[in-house]
């Protein structure tokens, strides 16, 4: 196995010579049928992307980004969207690809897309025409790969997207309640691309086009493959036991002998002493090694070092080792210092190259500036695709998140380093929406990304950033090395809202409020011009126990932001409200924690309508906590470090009921729980009580708020707290007292 490229030698996306098929030019839509291929003059596709989503030619959809990027490299790319997975012929619709199949489940993990947190089947699918569910199989990447192999057995198969990314190693599967091996092994694909896949997929396409055997392509960052044997020239660090991963090497002595390395001088020796260490031919002269040279040696060793994770059999049978493996994986996510990982999976070895190098601003612009049609493929006719409707008039300004929330998959997929588009590229896209997208009314629905306010925020030092192994830049406090300057974002907002034809620019992405309070100017700009009556933020909880396991700030940060929000709302002469999100049954949460959260909600007059329990997504740190009862945020030990877990369905229902303390359906359960907790004092009909002693004759709606025993304020809240439409895919809606309901993204 050859050494992987070092960060300094990666190739820019736009530096590849285009493939010969560039002569065909750009397609109005990537073809989904032979008839469309004929119109374009194609006799075949070079690459076929198989996806579980409907094909929407918009840069918020993975198949469009990958397809248009490869098209820009000169390749002919076809799309097979939501094929009939029971029929191999559906995978032969475009013929045999010349280079490879690219297989993805879509923008979501197929199991999360299909099932609720309570493992109930969803009847809808926001990524399908007319919101119809059931158009993709469970574990789509595996099934699609199998059908591709049946259709054309000799064509290479590369799997990618978030499902492959989050299942790249042995992982806990919530729906089967067991540890599964890497999805690469189950799919029997040739290669797996994880994380931001642009660099890897472009490099792979050009190498395969040049005649390279895919089984020999093993040095590209952000890829995983199965090996029979480990390379003999690599340093292997065994981290298959419960211990703290050791150093790569001892510190390099800055004073070395250039020939045989003997007779090293003391590191305390100064340059003059080193130079004078010898005056005759029998004594070797010591040479001083610069800092840059020492770093180069360390980098060379790191580039040839692989960490051995506990095997699939070990993590399958030992929860402590599973937690340990999860910790090691997350310690190796910084592209600047991550090492390769290997995990035995049966008779083969799963090899994971380090994460991809983040895209530069110029490369981000290159990815987003392709001529996307920005609408669904014409074959869908007038069918409505909810996921498209949601982002139709929104603009993605950045990628990544350094928050490190343990229940979130962004870090594992997009990384902690923020990748920014240029202001000009963003403004150009807004103008394209204004001028070309049907139905635009002058309102940009979002300028954001994984987090609304991390645009152009980064570590003050590139060197520190490349060497840091901390999982978060903002927990337990904002790092002193983090530049929290929001001026670039403020400037972008101002420029966007001043564009002709733009009436309003809203911010709908989740806001990192503990970061926002560091810039009152940003909060004022946001509140004055970019809130459409409601602003969603996610304190998630009020109690330190669960918040620490989430790696979220204390509720004091929320209070600080709320004060700023109300101050600038009043100054702007507007009526606007915060919509806080909360999560139930997260690892680290006790019954008492949920009770205290319910008391906080009642004290401040919040009524959470649609709520959801913690959803254990593959590979997340919180999922490791849920499965193992251990905390991978610190050194994993067999004794100690246990985390309280609400795992039984009864306890998960109780935690959800505390969030909806105002719903009469939950009162019987809460009464029993409060009595068993010794808090029967919270049961009564006064303002200081959490739930009443009476039960309404009917339990439909919010009749209790209209009861003769309720206060006028409670009756007003009851009228305002009407039920709203269902919230999709793990989202939580908390509703402010007395306000009309509003569904969210």
Features:
disordered C terminus; alpha/beta; 745 residues; single chain; 10-stranded mixed sheet; 24 strands
Task: Outline the fold blueprint.
Blueprint: H1 34-40, E1 47-51, H2 62-72, E2 77-81, E3 100-104, H3 110-114, H4 140-151, E4 157-160, H5 161-166, E5 171-173, E6 178-180, H6 183-187, E7 191-193, H7 198-209, E8 223-227, E9 235-238, E10 255-256, H8 271-275, E11 287-288, H9 291-303, E12 305-308, H10 312-317, H11 319-331, E13 340-345, E14 348-352, H12 361-368, H13 386-391, E15 394-396, E16 398-399, H14 410-414, E17 419-420, H15 423-436, E18 443-444, E19 446-448, H16 462-467, H17 487-497, E20 504-505, H18 513-516, H19 520-529, E21 534-540, H20 544-550, H21 555-572, E22 577-582, H22 591-603, E23 606-608, H23 621-628, H24 649-659, H25 667-676, H26 712-720, E24 734-736
Helix pairs in contact: 11-23, 17-19, 19-21, 22-24
**Could you give the distance between the termini?**
45 Å
- Strand order across the biggest sheet? 2-1-3-4-7-8-14-13-12-9
In CATH, what is the class of the largest domain?
Alpha Beta
> Under the CATH scheme, which architecture of the largest domain would be assigned?
2-Layer Sandwich
Query: Number of folding domains?
Result: 4
At CATH level 3, the topology of the largest domain is Transcription Regulator spoIIAA
Q: How large, in whole angstroms, is the Cα Rg?
A: 28 Å
Q: What ranges have pLDDT less than 50 throughout 5 or more consecutive residues?
A: 1-8, 246-286, 701-745
**Total DSSP E strands:** 24
Secondary structure tally, helices: 26
Shape: globular
Most strands sheet = 10 strands, mixed
Rounded mean pLDDT score: 88
What proportion of the residues form beta strands (DSSP E)? 5-15%
What structural class should be given to the helix and strand makeup? alpha/beta
Helix amount = 25-40%
